[in-house]
């Protein structure tokens, strides 16, 4: 789960990490009044769940009173990587020298939290990571010890020469680590971390991602969730007993069992096709589930064909076939369907489908190949 910059900085603030003075605004009028309250210049920043806003034109410095409504108007409603900007952060403009990067994430190789620090922060950090990875220092944090004062100072010495900054940095890094642990985060980043003219470290930007599996014990964090349209569909599917994940392809898949669903996606890929979704309808044989599943698949306009792959274990194939027929009577399906049934009561199921003139195939491979052919 992701949160916005302003929400991350609110958390930073609670742990006494210095952040810019700022106001969240939903309209141009709010931005104007925020700017007059904060004083010029201000930085106007798109609040969307996407990185690289600066490069996409979503971060602008307004130096004059005229520029505030102009820039706020431009950024509000802007599209950044598929996200529409519905709110902006109006932040006090700050003068600074260098930009630093600090971040915490989980490193699976060392099975530890790792602290990353670089004196080459700013909007080009991805380039630095790619072209000059040694400019990003990495420090593995021993789970038993946590971020000790010693290690925090060592990290700070990698960034700063001035002892006053090293002290501030070490203190800030320990707070950042505490935030990471307390909130079950999977990523915490400050980019850029800057030094103000008064010699204070200041978080100009903040980013936090969280472990979805820990949200049950992070109710305050979960309350900040703003699911995308796709995620809303996934949540609605979960309520109906379906596990649905949207993908980018055009072959809709309806499968029972997560393992078979994964195998189905692999097989489609193997034969050169692109699955439109992962969908596990689970172990029951309730026709309503098949109807819900079909509606879900067809709500994706990219879907050109639906491949149904059922292995009857607890689920009986004849029940699935009946469900399918009921579903097809209730909803208009304008795309071709390919069905593969095998296992418990497969024979009965196939008879039912044959009577309804539904195309059936013998094997999974055949089903995948036929679905791919129907897409073309
Ligand atoms: P990102 O592109 O999504 O990472 O957005 P950031 O909030 O990090 O802003 C991008 C860049 O804008 C920063 O790296 C800074 O160079 C610049 N910037 C952001 N806030 C300020 C500010 O208050 N003053 C000045 N002069 N530049 C800023
Ligand atoms: Mn940034």
Characterization of this structure:
- This protein has 376 residues and is of the alpha+beta class.
- It has 3 domains: 21-92, Dna Ligase, domain 1 (2-Layer Sandwich), CATH 3.30.1490; 96-222, 2-Layer Sandwich (D-amino Acid Aminotransferase, Chain A, domain 1); 229-375, 3-Layer(aba) Sandwich (Rossmann fold), CATH 3.40.50.261.
- Helices cover 38% and strands 25% of the residues.
- It contains 13 helices and 18 strands.
- The protein has helices at residues 5-14, 28-38, 67-75, 125-131, 149-159, 163-182, 219-222, 229-239, 258-270, 287-298, 317-330, 346-355, 364-375; strands at residues 22-25, 42-46, 59-62, 79-80, 83-84, 88-92, 96-107, 112-118, 137-141, 185-196, 201-203, 207-210, 243-246, 251-255, 277-280, 305-312, 337-343, 360-361.
- The strands form 5 sheets. Strands 7, 8, 9, 10, 11 and 12 form a 6-stranded antiparallel beta sheet that branches.
- Strand 7 and strand 8 form a beta hairpin.
- The longest helix has 20 residues, at 163-182.
- The protein is elongated and about 80 Å long.
- The model has no long low-confidence stretch (mean pLDDT 94).
- The structure holds guanosine-5'-diphosphate and manganese (II) ion.
- Guanosine-5'-diphosphate binds next to strand 2, strand 3 and strand 10.
Q: What is the CATH H-level superfamily of the largest domain?
A: Succinyl-CoA synthetase domains
Q: Indicate the mean pLDDT.
A: 94
Can you tell me the overall shape?
A: elongated
Bound compounds: guanosine-5'-diphosphate, manganese (II) ion
Number of helices: 13
Head-to-tail CA distance between termini: 36 Å
The main β sheet shows up as: 6 strands, antiparallel
In total, the number of strands is: 18
Specify the structural class.
alpha+beta
Beta-strand percentage range: 25-35%
CATH topology of the largest domain: Rossmann fold
Radius of gyration: 26 Å
Poorly predicted ranges: none
What is the CATH level 1 assignment of the largest domain? Alpha Beta
Q: What is the share of helical residues? A: 25-40%
CATH architecture grouping of the largest domain: 3-Layer(aba) Sandwich
For the record, the count of structural domains works out to: 3
């Amino acid at each position: 789960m992701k949160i916005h910059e302003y929400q991350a900085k609110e958390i930073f603030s609670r742990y006494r990490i210095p952040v810019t003075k700022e106001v969240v605004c939903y309209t141009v009028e709010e931005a104007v009044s925020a700017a007059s309250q904060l004083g010029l210049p201000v930085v106007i920043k798109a609040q969307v769940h996407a990185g690289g806003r600066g490069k996409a034109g979503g971060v602008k410095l307004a130096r004059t009173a005229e520029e505030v409504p102009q820039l706020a108007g431009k950024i509000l409603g802007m599209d950044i990587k598929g996200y529409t900007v519905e709110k902006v952060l109006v932040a006090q403009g700050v003068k600074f020298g260098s930009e630093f990067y600090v971040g915490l994430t989980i490193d699976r190789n060392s099975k530890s939290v790792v602290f990353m620090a670089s004196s080459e922060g700013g909007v080009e950090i991805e380039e630095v990571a790619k072209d000059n990875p040694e400019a990003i220092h990495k420090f593995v944090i021993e789970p038993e010890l946590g971020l000790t004062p010693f290690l925090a100072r060592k990290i700070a010495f990698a960034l700063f020469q001035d002892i006053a900054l090293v002290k501030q940095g070490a203190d800030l890094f320990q707070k950042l680590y505490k935030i990471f642990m307390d909130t079950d985060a999977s990523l915490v980043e400050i980019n850029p971390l800057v030094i103000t003219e008064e010699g204070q470290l200041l978080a100009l930007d903040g980013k936090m991602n969280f472990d979805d599996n820990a949200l049950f014990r992070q109710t305050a964090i979960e309350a900040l969730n703003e699911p995308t349209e796709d995620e809303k569909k996934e949540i609605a599917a979960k309520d109906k007993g379906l596990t649905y994940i949207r993908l980018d392809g055009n072959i809709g898949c309806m499968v029972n069992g997560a393992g078979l669903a994964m195998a189905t996606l692999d097989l489609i890929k193997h034969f050169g096709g692109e699955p439109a979704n992962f969908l596990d309808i689970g172990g029951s044989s309730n026709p309503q589930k098949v109807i819900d599943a079909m509606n879900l698949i067809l709500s994706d306009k990219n879907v050109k064909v639906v491949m149904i792959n059922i292995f009857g274990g607890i689920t009986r194939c004849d029940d699935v076939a009946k469900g399918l027929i009921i579903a097809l009577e209730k909803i208009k399906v304008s795309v071709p369907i390919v069905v593969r049934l095998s296992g418990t009561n497969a024979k009965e199921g196939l008879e039912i489908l044959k009577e309804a003139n539904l195309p059936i195939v013998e094997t999974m491979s055949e089903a995948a190949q036929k679905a791919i052919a129907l897409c073309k």
